[in-house]
Amino acid sequence: MPPLRHGLRRLHALRGTFGGDAARERSALLRALRRARWTGSADLRAYHDELLYIAAFPDTGALHRAARRELARTGRRVRALSAAARARLDDSALAGSTTAHTFMYGVARWLAAKGERVGIDRHSPAHLERLDPFLRQSLTPAESDRFDSGEVGTAEWLADASRDCRQGAFGWLLGQRRETPEPERMLYDDAEVPLRWELAESPLSASRNRIALGQVVPRRSARVLPADVAAHLRRPLKGITRLRGDAARRWHDVALAALAARTREVFPTIYANHDEIYRCPLGEGTDLCVLGVTPGDRSALEANYGYVMFSNGIPVGYGGVTTLGAQANTGANLFESFRRSEAAFLFAQSLRAFRTLFGVTRFVVNPYQFGRGNEEAITSGAYWFYDRLGFRPTSRPLAALASRERSRIAADRTHRSSRRTLQRLAGGDLVLPVAADDGSLLPERMLLQVGAGVARELSGVPAGGREAFLARAAERQLRLCTGERRRLRPSEQLGARFLAPVIRLIEPTVRGWSREERQRLWRLVQLKGARQERGYARAAAGMPVFWETLRRIVNDP
Prior knowledge:
Number of helices: 26
Largest sheet: 10 strands, mixed
Distance between the termini: 70 Å
Number of strands: 13
Helix content: 40-55%
Radius of gyration: 26 Å
């Protein structure tokens, strides 16, 4: 076996082992590999993965610094590869590579603002003409005459219009935009614009992307799950802080870069509310960054958040968490570079942070996370990752199947669940109860039923009259819930935009509630429109009467 491959295999085998002999062998391997000649993309990518792992989970500060120095040489090494080898690194997030994707508007605008080397991919089979409705928003009337004449194509028009723009057609199209009306944003997303991002030596590449924390926390061991995960989650996580100003923007930039370079997208992470970004210390140099969505992009009943996990400032995983009443829907996604790390413990700590932030009493994982329509989850046996944490099926047949398979694994540690078994296990949600509560599991289908109910309720109101109609309904609901006769405050107006149509469905029942319950219902409206949505999530978790009433209404219209 070539020495280079042997060195990479040894580095990978050392994952999860720290201190003493392991640290000395890592140091020796890094010194040897630093002098290697890299000609293959697979070897260079594997080395990059090991460097990221060492930088995130180092035995010593010296190893962390050595790994980062090597990561800084990645762009030069990628450029030295043949054109064919470089092409095989597309979408790898390495410095010197290229990421190609139809990024959502929020990511594209962010890349333009950062001055990244991004261009419209003219070689993509996508039709640029789909951009026309978005492009028209920027044209003067004089330009529109030519644009609509049919004598010039979209690509030619973009080339002419951006001739003197330093960032080319992409920069001309998206540069210097601060806020964009939602319809215009949707026009861009509908166009599915193919982009190519030349990472070069970008600080946003996985090779360089990190949050500077000032000190490195060396590792002595990898942490393991506690015997009673639910009890662990019930302990409040200390030290959670809401980031402000420049700190919030820096954490958001690093979190978004970690996803964008790898062509991953989580809506609330893209459209993050800089007034609601939390840093949650998970211990041993690890952190969780939780990002609330911008107020205008909130959901009617859920509270929607993105998250990115960090170790020593290096992004190691990501996901989302969405609260609905007393439950939170979530899932774990570890970046490939950090496999064989303390993933289960980090996710348990993340769940603990979510419970501390939002006061939920149970967690739900949807089947996609562990196999339905997700080939990677089937291959990795992701079901058992969640099973180890205590997640269990809600369906009795699936629970029985899981129990039988769990017994086989306990009896034979070499047993591996078949592909067919894992696909069957991905037939329904998994639930982890954390604490006793007053409500039952809310099916996500209820959200669709609520939407259908609202549509029926408003079917007699012309589209152009809906806004005024709902404004009057919200003022009526204010009187019903509080007895007050006044105009709505700005936060109430925003909250009513989301909740007034829903409350209208249950108004006859609400009239029979106690005064305290009605006041708490209006408090939900106020909190939904507040600068941070966390207050709404916590209040909604403690109001089972609202959710049970809503469930009954949509199931028995």
